Description:
This protein is 92% helix and 0% strand. The chain contains one helix and no strands. The protein has one helix spanning 6-70. The model has no long low-confidence stretch (mean pLDDT 95).
Amino acid sequence: xxxxxxxxxxxxxxxxxxxxxxxxxxxxxxxxxxxxxxxxxxxxxxxxxxxxxxxxxxxxxxxxxxxxxxx
Length: 71
């Protein structure tokens, strides 16, 4: 028997707490996914930059070899 509605209020507060936890969990998952995607694209960009720099070094070495061969 719940004359003053205390049990009903406790049940409602518990349900609200559960919903809050669900939304916090979903938000955390979205945040982790976004951070992972950001890290992946940053890694891809850095790898492309590294490859470009390696190509530039190889071209410079080849140019030096050609210059040494000419002189």
